[in-house]
Amino acid sequence: MGDLQIVDKSLRSVFVGNIPYEATEEKLKEIFGQIGQVLSFKLVYDRETGKPKGYGFCEYPDQATALSAMRNLNGFEIGGRTLRVDNACTEKSQLELQS
């Protein structure tokens, strides 16, 4: 995958933090699907324990939908926790997207 594809994917993706540990990818796809078509939702798991780390990434077909998700779902409450929805284009998340 070329650097341009990675950048394009990160512009169409959002970082989702503060996810309750009991939340499923299906439930999160449902919530984020209210904004637009979700291409993929990936929860990040701890390699050693196999437990969710409490964050993940949602990929949309275009940047406009990703921006809409950041505007409309940042602060959304699920399972007593407030989601943090931000641009996936941070250095740490770029590394996650590459792996």
UniProtKB/TrEMBL annotation:
Q: Which GO terms describe its molecular function?
A: mRNA binding
* Pfam families assigned: RRM_1
The answer to whether the entry has keyword DNA repair is no
Stored SMART domains: RRM
| SUPFAM superfamilies linked to this entry | RNA-binding domain, RBD
UniProt keyword annotation of RNA-binding present: yes
RRM domain: residues covered: 12-90
Q: Which domain of life is it from?
A: Eukaryota
User: Can you supply one Gene Ontology CC term for this chain's record?
Assistant: mRNA cleavage and polyadenylation specificity factor complex
Keywords, ordered alphabetically = RNA-binding
Family matches, as InterPro entries? Nucleotide-bd_a/b_plait_sf, RBD_domain_sf, RRM_dom
Q: What is this protein called?
A: RRM domain-containing protein
